[in-house]
Amino acid sequence: MGKSFRKQFFSRRQYNLRNQEETRQQRIDELDIENHRLRQLLNSSLFQVDSLSNEIHHLSSYLSRNRRQYRDLE
């Protein structure tokens, strides 16, 4: 009976350890997927910021040009 109990105990322990490892690996996989999605969003956002920055620069140049032309006409 002692051997049977020990065998069950270690089998249960192995099962629990395996289950913990599977759960841990599953969480790691979920985090990897989430990190990939967040990196894509970040890259997209950075691209949008860069585009907006270029647009602001162009608009600022047009505004300066128009101000000069306006002053020249006065």
From TrEMBL:
This is 6413_t:CDS:1. It comes from Funneliformis caledonium.
